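fyi for ur records
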Amino acid sequence: MKQILIDPITRLEGHGKIHLFVNDDGSLANAYFQVPELRGFEKFCVGRPVEEMCRITTRICGVCPDAHHMAAAKAADAVYGVTIPSAARKLRELMYNAFYAGDHTTHFYALGGPDFVCGPDAPPAERNILGVIAKVGIDAGKKVIAQRARGQRVIEIIGGKKVHPVTSLPGGMSKRITKEEQQEMIKIGEEMVEFAKFTIKVLNDVVLANKAYVDLILSDTFAHKTYNMGLVDANKKVNFYDGMVRVTGPDGSEHAKYAPKDYLSYVAEHVEPYSYLKYPFLKKVGWKGFVDGKDSGVYKASPLSRLNVSDGMTTPQAQAEYERFYETLTGDRSGKTPVHATLATHWARVVELVFACEATLMQAKDEEITSDHILDPPTGIVGEGVGIVEAPRGTLTHHYKTDNNGIITEANLIVGTTNNNAAISMSIKKAAEGLIKKGQEITDGILNRIEMAFRAYDPCFGCATHSLPGQMPMELIVHDAEGGDIIQTRRRN
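which gave:
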């Protein structure tokens, strides 16, 4: 038996590797996805004042600092039993949508885009953002960079800093917005909406107009019929900042809809000895291993999942794209028939990008965001709180317990990527099974297609690694003199 190691997996935050075990006849024997790093952030939180979590947890990750800022702020609000003023909520939501507009831009163009724009068989040195710019032109590259800058500027205006915001705190916000800043954000929102239209055109011209790519997206090699999870508002429309967590089954029927404080009644976590990343599953269905279907508790929480659990979007252009997405892939524009094609997650991400841009403009025009009433300081303490938002990579849960002085005694974080760990592992194995055949040379293009199954989830492992199985991840791998096959692997237990 031969082992093929994809290490490191590229175009992600954090570290991960894929082990492929190939039989002597060239067929796939097995595939494992492994996250070999431990961060242990939950332990770092213990002993800290809960009001510090809004600033500390942004440092967990350079990709999702705003998501952790929001989840921590909402959990701290709950710990103190305070309802924040309406203007504060609107400021948080505006900042969060602007963050989404920038974050989804990064993945579509810099992380996922190279596979489609440059092609899955392009040389690795060309499958990157520079390769994308070489294909689509320098002006398109400038548009992408400008869009990123717009999102960071809104975060700076509302959150105080471009990357790690600091202004959300228990009871509301610490920084008011001036009329001049509001006008600047309206202009940014207008430019974002134009960029969203540009991105729709790129999607149409580069991906959907290419039959080979459409066939790849719809291929059974890249599909799993699992449960889906995401936040929805009172009308079951997609909402990144607040709402109820809705879970639907592989057939689209509702499995559960619950308030964030009740998450432990619905979600549990499985552990495997070879990875520091846990495997959340639906508690009322149970962990049945790495299998899909209605009887398996494996679920996904991704842009595709959020569309699958919702009844649509709250902004006009995004709703039109939502309907086009489902009509194209299922024949039913209502969205009641779920899409299970993993690679369609890229398209779902564009639908969400359009929504985030439109929502940024709409919320920037709201006169209430310049109100002076943005903070209601806490006057009591409950001692326990849960905050849930939708991180771009999935449902993000912060759960804190404190003593009577607000000092954290216990913390639990279920991070966006963690939700998808089992599904990612299954997608990698199924893609490898579909692409590695007896007697066929395993090319770099095939290995990249296996990575594409993983990359569609936009995984981020910087903040997702919490399990401590008790073994160091250090591994010594000895290759033969030609730099090819692995001849020995040693691990220190």
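The longest strand covers residues 394-402. thats all i got for now
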